[in-house]
Structure formats: structure tokens, C-alpha cells
Amino acid sequence: MSVWQSIYEELNDPDFVIISAAQDTGGEAVAGPIFDAAKASYVQIVDVNHAISSAFNFVNVPSAAWVDEAGNIVRIDEGTYAKTHPFGGTDAYAPALKDWVRNGAASVYVQAADEVTDNIRRRTPEQEKAEAAFRLGNFFREKGYAEKAEHYWLMARTLHPDSINFFRQDLTLSEEGSAGESFMKFRTEFAEAGKDYYRPLDLD
Asked: CB within 10 Å: which end of the chain, N or C, has fewer?
């Protein structure tokens, strides 16, 4: 996040806004210190129900959508690390974003509407039910019904076992956290099965 803060300050464009949404059921208590440490001056949201990942069907964080001044999505669903990262980031994404901010619709990195549509992942009926089960689990956890929360979280994972969002959220409640050995094992198995952890960046 500190890297994105530097990019935000570098661009210094009043027409460019970053909206960063932490997808974490732990709420402000968990996500707030991360925002504070980055000293972020752009818009910050704590999304306890993963509503944004659900709406855009993002496979994992960090992911992003570029939305133009007319409210149109012009790029979507990629690993959006601002620099090279072992989880799938490269140095190519930040320069592409800067080009879009400076050139708008004329940027070579803007995707046509049909390409954006094709890049939005579709959910199966079972995966739609998983989204509802996940939110029910969050609701019961918030209200102190641990057994019911676990029931619906397990239902969500069963209905959508490939959801990295669900899996990593579960791990945040464990001692090892969301980027430990369990996550690395899951990520390796995911890739070995030929599944897209992140869609390859189309930035040529």
C-alpha cells in the first residue's frame, strides 16, 4: 500500500482517485492498522462481507477495476501489485496505470467493452449460493454464534472450494495467518491444477 501511496502522490491528478477496499471480516480493528501504516491519503474502505470482490468476482486480493469518468469499467480482474512480487506481481502494472491516468480513453491499456465483459469471471449457481452462505457466516460470527458461523463458512467453502477469497479469510482467524504455509500449499496446488490464480497480464 505504501507503494501505491507513492504513485498516487506522483500522479497528483485531481481526476484520479484510488479506492482501496480491504476484504476482511475482522473489520477496522484488523484492516485499520494496515491503512495507518501506509499513511494512505486516498479513499480507504473496510469491506467485511467481501461485497466488492463478490460484485467484480475477483479471485484474490489485490485485484482492481479501472473505472472511467463516465462510470464505465475499462480494465478488470488482474493481479495489481505495484511492483514485482512472488505472488504474481510485476513491474508492468503501475506504468500501465500511469499511462491510463495521463491519456484516458486514448491509453493503449484501455480494454474495449466486450473484452472487459469477457474478463469478468462467471459464477455457477453453486458459487452464487456460496456467496450467500459466506455472508450468513459473517453475520452469525458478528452476533456471537460461532457454531452457526462455522456451519455457513464451511458450506461456502464446500460450494466453492476454489475460492481463494474464502480460504484466505478463514486463515486470518488462524494462528498462521493468511500468507503462511497453508496458503502457500493451496496456491501451489491451485497452480498445478492449471487454474488461474491471477489472469496473465495483457500489457504488451
From this structure: C
For residue 85, what are the β-bridge partners?
89
pLDDT one digit per residue (tens) for the chain, 204 residues:
678 888 899 999 999 999 999 888 888 888 888 888 888 899 999 998 889 988 888 877 788 899 999 999 999 877 776 555 544 556 788 889 999 999 999 999 999 999 999 888 889 999 999 999 999 999 998 899 999 999 999 999 999 988 888 888 888 877 777 778 888 888 788 878 887 777 777 776
All structural domains of the chain, each given as residue ranges with its CATH number in brackets, are 2-119 (3.40.30.10), 125-192 (no CATH)
Long-range contacts of 93-96 (CB under 8 A, 24+ apart): 93/201, 93/203, 94/3, 94/7, 96/203
Distance CA 39, CA 21 (A): 15
Quick one: which of 90, 73, 72 has its CA closest to 81?
90
d(CA 73, CA 78): 13
Q: Are strands 73-79 and 63-67 parallel, antiparallel or unpaired?
A: antiparallel
